[in-house]
Amino acid sequence: MDEEWLSVGQVAGRSGFAPSAIRYYEGEGLISAERNTGGQRRFHRSVLRRLAFVSAARHLGVSLEEVRDALGRLPQNRTPNAADWKRISMLWREKLNGEIRALEALRDGLDSCIGCGCLSLDRCAISNPHDAAASGGPGAVYLPKQLRVQAATRR
C-alpha cells in the first residue's frame, strides 16, 4: 500500500479522533479500512473527509444514525467531491434552521426572564412552581420544542 493509505495512528493524528473512536466508527460502518499483508488496518486518505464530516455533525447534535444515512449517500466507487458533500449537507439545512430559530427563541426568553427583576421563585414560571410543567409531558417543557427533540436524540 502507498501514501494514499494511512494507519489508525496516522488517521488519529490527522483527524483529532482517538484510535478507539476511529475503530468504533469503522465498526458502525461510517468509515472503512482494508488490511495490509500484516493484518493491520489501513485507511484510504479520503477517510479524513468523512471523519471531518462526523466531527461537524457531532457538534451540530446530529445523531449517529443520521450521519450513517448521510454518509451512505456518498459514492462508494470514488472519492466524494464538493458536489457530493453539498448534496448531503443540504439534507440538514432545514433542521439546522429550525434549531437556530429555537435557540434564538430560548435566548430571547432568557433575556426577558433574567431582566424581569421579579427575583421571586414563587412567581417565576421557569422555576416551575407546584410542578405546573408536569402536564406538558416529560423533559424540559419550557424549552422550544425543536430543542427538546434534539436533546432526546443525543443519547
What does the model show?
The protein has 155 residues and is mainly alpha-helical. The protein folds into two domains: 5-80, Multidrug-efflux Transporter Regulator, Chain: A, Domain 2; 99-152, no CATH class. The chain is built from seven helices and three strands, in the order βααββααααα. Strands 1-3-2 form a three-stranded antiparallel β-sheet. The chain is elongated and about 65 Å long.
Low-confidence parts lasting 5 or more residues at pLDDT below 50? none
Helix amount: 40-55%
**Which CATH architecture of the largest domain is right?**
Orthogonal Bundle
Oligomer: single chain
Q: State mean pLDDT (0 to 100 scale).
A: 81
Helical segment count: 7
Widest sheet: strand ordering: 1-3-2
SS-derived structural category: mainly alpha
Please outline the major beta sheet.
3 strands, antiparallel
How far apart are the termini? 38 Å
Shape: elongated
Q: Nearest-angstrom radius of gyration?
A: 22 Å
CATH topology of the largest domain: Multidrug-efflux Transporter Regulator, Chain: A, Domain 2
* Count of folded domains: 2
Compute the number of strand runs.
3
